[in-house]
Amino acid sequence: MTAPRGSRLFGSGRSGAPAVAADFNSDAVEPATREEIFPVAMAAVLLGFMALIVCYTRGYLLLYGDAVAHLGIARRILDTRNPGLVQLGGVWLPLPHLLMLPFVQKMEWWQNGLAGAWPSLICYILGVIGFFRLSRRMLAPRWALAATAFYALNPNLLYLATTAMTEPLFLALLIWLALVTVECVEAIRADQATQVKRRLIALGLLIFAAVFTRYDGWIAGAAVWCVVAWQLLRARGLWRRVGVSFAVFTLLAVAGPLLWLWYNRHFCHDPLDFMRGPYSAPAIERRTSPPGSKHYRGWHNPGWAVLFYTRTAQVDAAAWETGFALLLASVAGIWVALRQKIARAALLLWIPLPFYVYSVAYGSVPIFIPELYPHSFYNARYGMEMLPALVLFAAVAAAAWERSRAKTVSPSAGAGKTVRPLYLVGIALAVANALGLVYGTAVVQKCAGLIEHRPSTLLARYDMPLVLKEGVVNATTRVPFERNLALALADLPAGAPILMQESDHIGALQDAGIALRQTINESDYDSWHAALQAPADHAAYVVALTDDAVAKAVGEHPEGLQELTILCGTGQPCARIYQSDRFAATGAARSK
Fold first, then answer.
1. What mean pLDDT is predicted for residues 106-116?
2. Contact 533, 513 (CB under 8 A)
3. pTM above 0.70, yes or no
4. Taking the domains of the chain in order of start, what are their residue ranges?
């Protein structure tokens, strides 16, 4: 006898036996209940905090320079000589920094990175919940659980959930955008005006948030609007009843991009500063590329761009070379979803694919992974945005294969007993995949003496999850340099004004625990440019990094400056710390 819907996970049948097995093995594809969602949410909380403990104790939270920079931007919104909205500026969109704002004002949390971990951890939990809910719209309970386990146990995702990076937030928003769009489309087809109105407002708010998180959110928002508008056009009678809600939905969808264009025009004097300004992707590529060097593979070549991005997504999602199987299964899942009309709006999860292919080919956004030339680490985390699509649609394909097998076995032969344990294979693969990504080297090394005859670079690919490995590699020279610079800065008199360009090495101030309002930096246009004209008159100490604006100012106006310290590091600029002989007499009053 089937258990009541409300007792799906925790109830029992009349015989007293738990109803879990009967409902869990059900083939019903329907919205998840609270009883189903609760244990998934608790598991996500547990996994998230376990990841936080591991990463915090091992010092992984601040490996990425971008994570340090995100925390610095959030900190300077209030802690600066010129606080306010102007500090939101830059290429990076502001929502992640606003979410960190309540946490980053605590000096200790800013220094150890916990200020960025808390919002990311919450987003990870919400993303797992949303993924399970979306899976239940497309899969039976057992397969929804297997897919969610594969997604939630991904070590790259768990690591990012402990950092100030923007991926956990955007993944949560992308998943919920797809979920609410699926729900909205179903409500439109069922002619449920009240539900449609609620979903339209929710979608508008989600698009607004996604637009202010990452630029692929702009494409996702446009795609969601087109899907919903098309469905409403086909339901003309419903259109009149939800017209006001649709207008609000449209206003929210376009408000984000328009506000950001206005912001760039008002504060940066160019509405497209994020695309062509000094901190845009093309400008960064010009600064970081050696003179006379060729463009990276994929430049103006969509074919190579597809290869780089899909290969990166595979390595981020699956251990060793199993990513090929995952990708093929997910493509088969697309065909199944389209043919069987299974929540086709969930195809919105694939939006990152064309966005990043275009970005690599025409947006000056290179991606380097060890598997492909030049066998390096750069922007490998971008492949994480394909994780929900790869996992969910691969599960759709696996579930369809299970159903096809069931049809070929007669009921008298025990089809249920033969077929249904297949989902256990999916759960086992989720666990094995997580262990393979984390303990890849140990497993590979134990395989018959193959490694002894392979180049050492092979092991380097597998000694830890790719996204974490990228952070470790890129922090190898930056972290020691910033730590040594922080030690030198900590020896300066407390409260003494410091002239320093912060964009590249704000981590030194963070490590030293120096309030940003104590510094004169590029975030305050007037005082910054005045100080560059006469460094010794505006700051007690000057920190010049090789070839930065302060170094050039010192070279042009060295009067009144006495060199105290020179710090150099491999792969990093040299830092020169100067003391002003003039500031005590000419600048003290102005700095108060």
1. 97
2. no
3. yes
4. 1-27, 31-404, 475-591
